[in-house]
Amino acid sequence: MATPNYPKSNGDVQRELRQGIIEAQAAAQNRVEFVQASKGLILPNLAGHPAAPASGVILYALAGHLWCKEADGSPHQLTS
Predict the structure, then answer these.
(1) Average of pLDDT values for 16-31?
(2) Rounded Cα–Cα distance for residues 78 and 43 (Å)
(3) Which H or E run includes 27?
(4) Which superkingdom, per the lineage (predicted)?
(5) CA angle in degrees (0–180, nearest 5) for 70-79-54
């Protein structure tokens, strides 16, 4: 005898939504670490330039200087 194929209930949908939220929060915590202090955003000091973002810009620290990399791949040093 096969298991009947019941349609999803409201509880099933809510459970899936909760699981999706938990997974999204866990994924966000696994991104590049940063610390927000009273002086502003403190970026990690990277060993090299990161890959270009798909769109927009990415801010990062390298050798104690603030850099930004645009979607076209061009890096710009923002501090001297």
Answers:
(1) 74
(2) 14
(3) helix 10-29
(4) Bacteria
(5) 15
In terms of pTM, does the model score above 0.85?
Answer: no
In the predicted structure, residue 45 carries a pLDDT above the cut 50: yes
SS3 content of the chain, % helix, strand, coil (to 5): 25, 30, 45
Alpha carbons 50 and 58: distance in angstroms, whole number: 9
* CA-based nearest residue to 66, from 56, 53, 79: 79
Q: Closest Cα partner for 67 from 56, 55, 50, 54? A: 50
Question: CA distances (Å), 39 to each of 30, 36, 42, 61, in order?
Answer: 24, 8, 8, 16
Name the DSSP class of 28: H
Q: What is the pLDDT of residue 33?
A: 54
